[in-house]
Amino acid sequence: MANEIELKLALAETGPEALHHHPRLAGLPTTTTRLGNTYFDTPEGELEAARLALRLRHDDTRLVQTLKTSGRGGGGLSNRGEWEWEVLGPGLDLSKLADLPPMASLGEGVLGRLTPRFSTDFSREIWWWEDDTATLEVALDLGEIRAGERTATIRELELELKDGDEAAMLDLAEILAKTVPLRPSDTSKAARGAALLAGCWTLPEGGTASAWLHRAVVALDALADTGEDAWRDTARQALWRLAALQDARVSEDAQRLAEALHQTHWLTEDFGRRALGLARRLPKVALG
Fold first, then answer.
1. Which residue segment(s) compose the domain that 171 sits in?
2. How many other C-beta atoms lie within 10 A of the C-beta of residue 114?
3. Can you spell out the DSSP letters for 146-164?
4. Which terminal residue of the chain has fewer beta carbons within 10 Å of its beta carbon, N or C?
């Protein structure tokens, strides 16, 4: 098992163009790949209930099977367990899957009932970013999630730590946020697809400062995929609860974010910088 450590950022509509013009990335070489992914679960959603995600990914030359756990994080950050291996296809490699500890705990009957549930199709443009502290894979994903007749847009940036200090992900994100409208996102493509398929979103509970931030971020993820303004209100309420719990600096950022959500075009560079500041200062939580 490997640990996938990354920072996920949702971009405004103008975000990809702004990203390409950012001086920290503009001079770096890139590679672009088309990725088609099919996610599997039982009809009852037993993998989702166990906070697991199983997919087959087609890239230009390979078919790769991946199982991920939920892990810990918040404010866009995540640290998840991941098993990944190349397969011959066309379907799942059930024999190796059965040997993995998370699947073994679900029982043998689950394997025989796995079925395709939803899919994602997107282009991935990759930059490699290095400094004295870390090496990061910077991946811009543009495409869509499809679950039955429902679709949702993929427009996100993932900063994945390949070597070095985790803080480098937030360092780079804060630099990018000076000119790129972005925000932390806590909802994986798998979780978004499952919500799209079910036609409903489930929010994490609040309580601690970190939990309120996580709730606000997931509510904004739901807003992006559904367009339902009630999620904006939910995010705003969570941020006000966060503001009431914390010190002056955290409280000010949370209040400013809550106030920004009254605006039509709330996803600005300032919004992203303040949200990333909260992610840096607050502890991690268990992710769904």
1. 2-184
2. 19
3. EETTEEEEEEEEEEEEEEE
4. N
Same domain, 19 and 142: yes
Residue 30: strand, helix, or coil: coil
Both 179 and 154 in one domain: the answer is yes
- pLDDT tens profile 22-56: 999 988 999 999 999 999 999 999 999 999 999 99
- pTM to 2 decimal places: 0.95
Structural domain tally of the chain? 2
Is residue 99 domain-shared with residue 232, that is, in the same domain?
no
Number of Cα atoms under 13 Å in the Cβ half of residue 41: 23
- Which helix (H) or strand (E) segment holds residue 238: the answer is helix 230-245
Helix H or strand E segment including 269: helix 269-281
CA–CA separation, 45 vs 65, rounded Å? 19
In a domain, 11, yes or no: yes
